[in-house]
């Protein structure tokens, strides 16, 4: 299972890549594996300012629909529009082409509360 050391993680299985004041967010390799084949990603929060833990969208797999939670507060500045026609990218490359949103951070201190790769491995028993 792929759990990149340079990323931060949440207990809800989102990952976060911090670059300056921008956070790129997606779901983890573990999450996509648990969900199975992803058939639809719905994100209608582009341009919205959301608080940490707010729902920013949903991901639909063959067997279930799951909410996606904001790991950090901020404005959703971009949605990966490639997922509208290729939602399977989340399964194939969850940390690359399968990213979901980019957020302009509003509270950088929230980053400190996210899980490290080692903490996330412990959480999922990897």
Overview of this structure, please?
- The protein is of the alpha+beta class.
- It has one domain: RNA polymerase II/Efflux pump adaptor protein, barrel-sandwich hybrid domain (OB fold (Dihydrolipoamide Acetyltransferase, E2P), Beta Barrel).
- Helix content is 18%, strand content 35%.
- The radius of gyration is 13 Å and the shape is globular.
- It starts with 7 loop residues before the first strand and ends with a helix.
Quick one: overall form?
globular
Fraction of helical residues: 10-25%
Q: Just name the CATH architecture.
A: Beta Barrel
- Strand order, largest beta sheet: 1-2-3-9-8-5
| Oligomerization category of the chains in this entry | single chain
Number of domains: 1
| CATH superfamily heading | RNA polymerase II/Efflux pump adaptor protein, barrel-sandwich hybrid domain
The tally of beta strands, per DSSP, is: 9
Q: CATH topology, which one?
A: OB fold (Dihydrolipoamide Acetyltransferase, E2P)
Key terms:
OB fold (Dihydrolipoamide Acetyltransferase, E2P); globular; 3-stranded antiparallel beta sheet; alpha+beta; 126 residues
Quick take:
By secondary structure, the protein is α+β, with helices and mostly antiparallel strands.
Write the layout of secondary structure elements.
Blueprint: E1 8-9, E2 14-19, E3 22-27, H1 29-35, E4 38-42, E5 49-50, E6 55-61, E7 65-69, E8 74-79, H2 82-85, H3 89-92, E9 101-105, H4 117-124
Antiparallel strand pairs: 1-2, 2-3, 3-9, 4-6, 5-8, 6-7, 8-9
């Amino acid at each position: 299972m792929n759990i990149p050391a340079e990323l931060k993680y949440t207990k809800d299985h989102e990952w976060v890549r911090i670059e300056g004041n921008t956070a790129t967010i997606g779901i983890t390799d573990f999450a996509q594996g648990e969900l199975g084949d992803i058939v639809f990603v719905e994100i209608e929060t582009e341009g919205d300012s959301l608080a940490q833990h707010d729902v920013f969208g949903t991901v639909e797999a063959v067997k279930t629909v799951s909410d996606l939670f904001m790991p950090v507060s901020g404005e959703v500045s971009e949605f990966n529009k490639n997922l509208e026609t290729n939602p399977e990218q989340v399964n194939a490359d969850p940390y690359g082409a399968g990213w979901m949103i980019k957020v302009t951070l509003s509270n950088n201190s929230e980053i400190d509360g996210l899980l490290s790769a080692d903490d996330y491995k412990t959480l999922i028993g990897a």
